[in-house]
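protein under study:
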Amino acid sequence: MYLIIGLGNPGRDYKNTRHNIGFDVIETLAEEERIGVLEKKHKAVIGKGVIAGQKVLLAMPQTYMNLSGESVRELVDYYKVDETCEVIVISDDISLAPGQIRIRKKGSAGGHNGLKNIIAHLGHDEFCRIKMGVGEKPKGYDLADYVLGHFTQDERKIMDEAAKEACEAIRMILSDDIDKAMNRFNAKKG
């Protein structure tokens, strides 16, 4: 079983913010694959289904971003998934242009507190992640204000397309392999 986790913050105030692009991807994937993500369990909202012939659990931790690892640890333990090859985490990334996707097999948190907390709870950084570019914060902006800010109308269109691309990438990771997905989706846009 694959555990596919979108990072974000719970609550209406955070919907459609840059920090919640992980939730957006899970919601898009759930809709495309007709998987209900409604059950509250393990500090997350989850849904089970099959994508590309693989059993999956879609999850949106409800612990707030900085404590995402608490939910991920519980999910990994309860469902007994191999945390080095059956976990995919989707998060925002300010070092990538809006709509840019970067897939990694492992790596540091890169300053992202949600990833940092997951790494702390798992005890390693060897899990797949899909980083969703939300653009660099403008000069003089507070980082928290920027990532908790909403997308402009133009950015929203770009991010909706990026969410669909991320879903394609997830299907490719599940059916082929991560290297193939990295080769296809890590190319710079422009």
Notes: DSSP finds six helices and seven strands in the chain. The first strand starts at residue 2 and ends at 6. Residues 15 and 133 are 17 Å apart (CA to CA). The chain has a mean pLDDT of 94.
